[in-house]
Amino acid sequence: MLTLGDVVVTARKREELVKDVPVAETVLSGAVLDRDDAVTLTDLAQKAPNLLVSATNARQTSVALRGLGKNSANEAIQSSVGIVVDGVVLTQAGMSWSDYVDLDRIEVLRGPQGTLQGKNTTLGVIVISTKAPSFTPEYTIEAGYGSRSTYDVRASATGPLVDDLLAYRASYYTGDGDGPIKNIYTPLGGTWEGPHRGGARLQFLLTPVEDLTARLIVNYDASDERGNLSPYILDPTTFANGTPRPITYSSRLARGYFGGYEPLIGPITSQYVDLNSAQPLPVHQRGLSLEINEKLGGYTLTSISAYRRNDFNFQNDFDYTHFNIQQLSGTVGDTNQISQELRLASPVGPAVDYQVGLFAHRSKSYTLSRALFGQDAGAFYATNSQYAALSTAALQASLNGVYNTTEVDPTSKSAAAFAQANWHLTDQATLTAGVRDTEETVGTIYNKGSRGGVAVSGASLAIRSAQYGGPLYGYVNAGEMKKNSVSWLVNPSYKLTHDVLAYASASFGTKSGAVQLDTNGHQANVQPENSRDYELGFKSSWLDESLVFDANLYQTHITNYQSTATVVSTTSSTGYASLLTNVGGVLMRGLEIDSAWNASNQLHFTLGAAYNNARYSSYTNATCPVELSVSTPCDFTGKQVAAAPKVTATVGVDYRQPIGDRLVGHVFLNDVFRSRANLSTTLSEYTWQGAYNVTNGGVGFTSPDGKIEVDFIAKNLLNTRYAINLGQYSNSAGVAEFYGDPRYVGFDVKARF
Fold it and tell me: Does 4 score more than 60 pLDDT?
């Protein structure tokens, strides 16, 4: 009988058995992720309870645990959920925009992890560990093909360069395919939302003496995918009270200038769009890290030095027509970070063991948001009275060739000292306590301007000015914000039996604030976000460690919760603007379950489930839903937090059976369930995503020695349509939806030798 008790993790920066770690944690093995063709963070979210990932593009990538943390498209702010890859903390969630292949494991740690795992982990952290170089030669190659002419190739190799001194590991992946959405505008054509990416990782492991190791990792990832589509599924003609809307996206396009054009709105947008200027979205990621471990008697000194860089250039077509309204819309950006960690770990002793360390981090970002207008923009963006008053030539002159830009350059510098100790009171009782003191300085520089276009006046100038989105304030140094914060943890645990661990924890963490200006160029800084968390749980194994059942209760109170909000703006042409702000407070209470059962050598079950009651404990100045047509704030106190389903669950089954002497067959099935949630921060009635299931599965055959494997895989087997993001309508846009991937069916062939 197989057992589940010997899974090794590094949740607390040292190797431990997962059953002995008093933390709510889900562990996913690299072998299972590879079998299921789960290679992105979005795939990962379908395998861990209470984890949500939204990744429409690299800049719009956000990660949420327990319903919170989904902030994206703002380099001035960092995630509430940390992402750590091979010991390196990523500044932005978008730096995870790649395929993760050749993995050892992924650990999802829920709850504040700031004392050991680093900055901005007030809600949890995802720890990604790739396979290390080995002195035992091993080679793997994998190829797959499936729906929409999608193919992928992955390969890895490891072995000694110099016996017992220097080993290497090389990993590579590439993938391409058509998307599920076809562009009906023939001159541009193409399909959208398909894969086109690749990457490589090269590692070296140096072991010059028995007590010293050095691991160098170099990686490069790139994508150039036609994506980031959020087409319009609805464009209501009336407000909630039945009053007709004076101007809408559809009514603008119904003007005589556009010759009776009918925009694509509704379910058809899952298959077709009408685009004339959108381009593939290039993303490049580079990384370099060096981890050195030296044993000093029973102590271990660890140094991790790292550099990361992410750049992108997005050129969208957000009017979703073939007219020359916006010829260019999108952001070009570049973020780089440098980090250094020094950590000393004591031997695990009978009385006390501990870790102490220092951490330094610096990040710089450059973003330039651009909008280049075409000759049809004036006829579209004009108000009804402006359209009636102006000639065709005046409408075209109002915006044709106008190029609006907003540059935002945030910086962050931080230094921290941390310590965490385990005091073994008895053989059964342990008290863990930790503290982290962080000094951080953040700042931002802005530059907002416009150029191009011919000189205009009167109503034509009014049309142009409305697209500035506020005054053109030029170059502004918005200043710096310097803060000191202290995170702490108290975490007692008790071994009720050899197989049952009970634990509790109380912790406090802080996420850094941001310096920013609003659309009018006025100071609108975002204060640090604070999290106070209490947890009570147990980990247990039964039936000779063939059954694992873990449960965790939590209560988390967050003050100054940071959220990207849609706010009323008198200077915006749509009447709304996106702005990062502090929400008064959020209170989360819930229950999480993680379990697995090896019913036999052939049959394996997994279950993860969570109930998450995440509500605004104080939010009296919320922006009301657009359909209410009011300018006064709404009170969202007591309402479920945006994008936070109350119930999530993952269920999996895997069955293996020898077939004669030459084959081992296996069948696997995974299902994820999420209850309904409102996906807009304004809690609009039009942005509810109902409860849904996504089912993945497959059947495969493996040689008895495991060297050859063929898998037939289905993702979203029932072809469920579900939204990942929904945006409320405005006077120039409909209700926008970015939906999850449709059904994919394909096969993979793997060879190991």
Answer: no
**Token pair listed for 603:** 């049959």
d(CA 359, CA 364): 17
Give bridge partners of residue 406 from the DSSP assignment: 369, 448
| Residue where the block lists tokens 């993790």 | 9
In the three-class reduction of DSSP (H, G, I as helix; E, B as strand; rest coil), residue 487 is classed as strand
pLDDT band at 566 (very low <50, low <70, confident <90, very high): low
Residue the block writes with tokens 């950590």? 343
Q: Does the predicted TM-score (pTM) go above 0.85?
A: yes
Alpha-carbon distances, residue 697 vs 50, 90, 360, 715 (angstroms): 21, 31, 43, 7
**Per-residue three-class SS string for 131-154:** CCCCCCCEEEEEEEEEHHHEEEEE
548 - beta bridge partners?
Answer: 541, 596
Q: Are 390 and 345 in contact (CB under 8 A)?
A: no
* Cβ–Cβ under 8 Å, residues 83 and 95: yes
Strand partners of residue 342: 303, 358
- The SS3 call for residue 389 is helix
Binned at pLDDT 50, 70 and 90, residue 579 comes out as confident
Please give the Cα distance from 82 to 436 (Å, whole number). Answer: 16
Over residues 293-308, mean pLDDT: 96
Q: DSSP of 409-464, one letter per residue? A: EEEEEEEEEEEEEEEE-SSSEEEEEEEEEEEEEEEEEEEEEEE-S----HHHHHHH
Q: In 295-404, where does DSSP find H-type helix?
A: 377-381, 384-389, 392-399
Angle between helix axes 392-399 and 458-466 (nearest 10 degrees) is: 40
Cα separation of 308 and 148, whole Å? Answer: 33
SS3 575: coil
Q: What is the mean pLDDT of the chain?
A: 92
Distance CA 228, CA 149 (A): 20
Q: What is the band of 10 on the pLDDT scale with cuts at 50, 70, 90?
A: confident
Query: What tens digit of pLDDT does each residue of 705-732 get?
Result: 999 999 999 999 999 999 999 999 999 9
Cα–Cα dist 686/735, whole Å: 7
Distance CA 570, CA 577 (A): 9
For residue 236, the one-letter residue type is P
**471 SS3 class:** coil
Question: What whole-number distance in Å separates Cα of residue 374 and Cα of residue 77?
Answer: 33
Structure tokens at 575: 């009447």
Do residues 18 and 5 make contact, with C-beta atoms less than 8 angstroms apart?
no
How far is residue 332's CA from residue 313's CA, in Å, rounded to a whole number? 4
Query: From CA 567, how far away is CA 574, in angstroms rounded?
Result: 11
Asked if residue 485 lies in contact with residue 528, where contact means CB atoms within 8 angstroms, the answer is: yes
Distance CA 470, CA 578 (A): 13
The token pair that represents 432 in the structure block:
């863990």
> Is residue 361 within a helix (H) or strand (E), and if so which, with residue range?
strand 352-373
Residue type, 479: G
CA 691 to chain centre: 21
Residues 317-324: what's their mean pLDDT? 95
Q: Which two tokens stand for residue 724?
A: 């990942």
HEC string for 515-554: CCECCCCCECCECCEEEEEEEEEEEEEECCCCEEEEEEEE
Q: E strand or H helix at 732, and its extent? A: none
pLDDT of residue 120: 63
∠ CA 320-326-331, rounded to 5°: 100
Strands (DSSP E) contained in 569-707 are 576-598, 603-618, 647-659, 663-674, 677-678, 688-689, 692-702
**Nearest Cα to Cα of residue 355 among 5, 6, 16:** 16
